[in-house]
Write a structure and sequence with these properties.
The chain has about 200 residues and is mainly beta. The protein has one domain (about 1-200): Lipoprotein localisation LolA/LolB/LppX (outer membrane lipoprotein receptor (LolB), chain A, Clam), CATH 2.50.20. Helices cover about 10% and strands about 45% of the residues. The chain has a 12-stranded mixed β-sheet with strand order 7-8-9-10-11-1-2-3-4-5-6-12. The longest helix is centred in the N-terminal third of the chain and has 10 residues, at about 1-10. It is globular. Residues about 10-20 have low confidence and may be disordered.
């Protein structure tokens, strides 16, 4: 599960606006996003699937919760909290410049993807979705990711994300019950460290 948290945390820091029309259309409508998700990581011969819920309010506020594994990632747009309930440990990171340097802040609202990534519409018709391909411009500044794919349905609603890291591990996210432009309480992006939990500050 630690690897899943690391992948998801990395996923949240680098994308933003792009030249893709379908991606721009989604971003224009998606000032807020709520969805359920299923995440599958394939590492060698091992496959692990976890489920959860996400909430996003652009810019830079998000809540990503693995329901069955009791893992939580929260950003209040200033700090990011990674809470592992079974381990009774929370890691706190400053948002800072890192929000612009990994492959899914498109959902949270970074702004300089064209400086960091090449973004193109893919000709693939896989699953009947419209796919957008995101590739790091620099291999030295990609947080370990080689490629990110985002799949949108006929209504330009986000349906899937797929990404591959430098070690060949593949992660697939399938979103369901996606809602955009909905009201989300700001309290959902606030995290209070529980009593007795170990705190790691980075």
């Amino acid at each position: 599960m630690k690897k899943a948290i690391t992948l998801l945390f990395s996923l949240y820091f680098g994308l933003s606006f792009a030249d893709s029309l379908v991606l721009n259309d989604f971003l224009n409508k998606a000032k807020t996003i709520k969805a359920d998700f299923s995440q599958t990581i394939i590492s060698g011969k091992k496959t692990r699937t976890t489920n959860g819920v996400m909430e996003i309010s652009r810019p830079n506020k998000f809540r990503w919760e693995y329901t069955q594994d009791q893992q939580l990632i929260v950003s209040d747009a200033k700090q990011i909290y990674l809470y592992d309930k079974p381990l009774q440990q929370v890691t706190i990171k400053q948002l800072g410049q890192s929000i612009d340097k990994s492959p899914a802040a498109v959902l949270a609202g970074a702004t300089n993807i064209n400086n960091l990534y090449n973004v193109t519409d893919s000709s693939s018709a896989q699953d009947g979705l419209k796919w957008v391909q995101i590739v790091p411009r620099s291999k030295n500044d990609n947080n370990g990711f080689q490629i990110v794919m985002m799949g949108f349905d006929k209504q330009n609603q986000l349906n899937k994300m797929q990404f591959t890291d430098s070690f060949g591990n593949r992660t697939s996210l399938v979103f369901s019950n996606v809602e955009t432009g909905v009201s989300i309480p700001q309290s959902d992006y606030q995290f209070k460290v529980p009593n007795g939990v170990d705190v790691l500050q980075q």
